Every structure is written in C-alpha cells, then in structure tokens.
Amino acid sequence: MSQTDTARLLIACDDQPGIVAAVANVLAEHGANITALDQHSTDAEGGRFFQRTVIHLPDLAAARPALEASIGEVAERFGMEWSLHDAARRKRVAIFVSKYDHCLMELLWRQQRGQLEIDITMVISNHPDLAEAVRGFGVPFVHIPAGHGPEAKAAMEARQLDLLQGNVDLVVLARYMQILTDDFIERIGAPVINIHHSFLPAFIGANPYARAKERGVKLIGATAHYATADLDEGPIIEQDVTRASHADSAAALQSRGADVERQVLARAVQWHAEDRVIVHGRSTVIL
Predict the structure, then answer these.
(1) Residues 86, 119, 232, 259: which is the catalytic one?
(2) What is d(CA 23, CA 52) in angstroms, rounded to the nearest whole number?
(3) Which fold has domain 91-286?
(4) Catalytic site residue 129?
C-alpha cells in the first residue's frame, strides 16, 4: 500500500472503557479511514492499554494540525501518551560498527533491496576496515578512532554528536564494540538499538563462543534492545535462537550466532521503522 497520506497513531494509557471508540470517532470526524488497528491491554482491570492505528487521510499535511488538536483533547481526557507518525517520512538512521560486518551488511542490503524502509544516512566506525564495502552502497562512511583514555573517548563522542544531533531519528549499534557513555546516550537526541549474543551475562567479554563451546551450550541466540545507561539491559525488542550440537566447533557456533544476530537486528530495526514498538517500563509492546 502506498504510504502517501498515511499516518500511524500510537497511544498508551491506563485501560478504561471507551478508548477505542473515542479515538475512532475523532478519526472519523476528520475523514480518516482506519486501514489497520492493533491493541493490547496488560490487564482488563487496572492494566495499561496500547494501540497502534494506521490511517489514510487525503491531504494529510494540511489536515494534520486540526487532527492533532482533536487527538490532544481525547488524550487529555483519557490521560494518554500519544504520537502521530507520517508513514511516508522514512526514518533517518546512523549505523555504528567496529570490525564485524554481518549485521551492518544485512541492514545495507535490505535497505538497498527495498525491504527495509529507512534512509541510512551514515555509517560511523572506530576502525577503517569496512569503508570500501559501505561506500559500495552509496552511504557515507566516517572513521572516528577511539583512541585511549577518557579524554580520547570524550573527543570521539563529541565528533559523533556533531554528526548525529538533529540529523538522525535512530542510531543502530551493529556490533559496535565500544561502550557508550551515559552522557552520550542522553544527548544523542534519538533512540539507540543494540544487538548482542544471548550468552550475556554468563559469558562477558572476549571469545564468548569459545567459552560456550567449553560449557557445551546447546542454544545460541541474539537479543536486540534499546540502549540505556545500563547498555545491555534496555527494553528488549526482539530475540531468537538456534540449536547447537556437541559436534559444532567454536567457529561454527560463532557463524550460527552471526546469522541469528543479523536477522534479529533487522527485524528490530524494521519494527521500529514501522512504528510498531511502544516502550512499557523496562519492556516493550510490539503491535
């Protein structure tokens, strides 16, 4: 379906009678046609209610101010948190990467093939290794070395913020092997999605697949989540696993893990780009 004159309305509030009807009435009054609707309540009594509504409204740009004013009135009555997203406006995404390229290349390939409706505005890396591969997709590659010590870290993040602030709607850490500081996450001005293997917190640090092999791990997987001050503990968006065998080498485990990581990250980015993710405390609702 064409995204022209299409918008996505996300709402969250305490569950109570009349929410769906009130929202639908406002949309109908403004001539908006509902083309998709998903909703979830955590509990019928005293729960939290979430809804994603896709609408088509001719001449959306002109009609939007009046529509938003009416939605705001309903939101005030029900105590809603809400946002209205123009589906035709693709999210501008910056990808951070170090040396592992599997997640990065998956996102670039899907975007090029039209399977991921985002605009990748830049790739930022603390290593120069992937420059040529990225530029082959027509995407700017920016190498910002990490350096050593807190002063070098601060200088690196300052350069990154100069590039990002006001220019991106999402940052994706596609196996970026640097820890983001709390100050950077607060100042970036956009959500951050991270991907990591599912062994955390059991196998922290280098060579997790070798230690997984030693322990006879039978399931390997990946987790995509929003990055917070607790980098690997933010709200989870997507996860998946694949089985492993005693016959698998550490290298085979790592290869399987890479496959899962890129699939999980791609789905998480896609769902975010389609405005399907609503954060609920330390968790998420995917609609």
Answers:
(1) 232
(2) 11
(3) Rossmann fold (3.40.50)
(4) no
Q: Under CATH, which number does the domain 6-86 receive?
A: 3.30.70.260
Write down the pTM of the prediction. 0.94
Torsion region of 189: left, alpha or beta (phi above 0 gives left; psi -120 to 50 gives alpha): left
pLDDT in tens, the chain (287 residues): 568 999 999 999 999 999 999 999 999 999 999 999 999 999 989 999 999 999 999 999 999 999 999 999 999 999 999 999 999 999 999 999 999 999 999 999 999 999 999 999 999 999 999 999 999 999 999 999 987 888 999 999 999 999 999 999 999 999 998 989 999 999 999 999 999 887 655 666 677 888 888 888 888 899 999 998 776 789 999 999 999 889 999 899 889 999 999 999 999 999 999 999 999 999 999 99
User: Which of 162, 252, 265 has the alpha carbon at shortest distance from 213?
Assistant: 252
Closest CA to 71 of 87, 88, 48, 55: 55
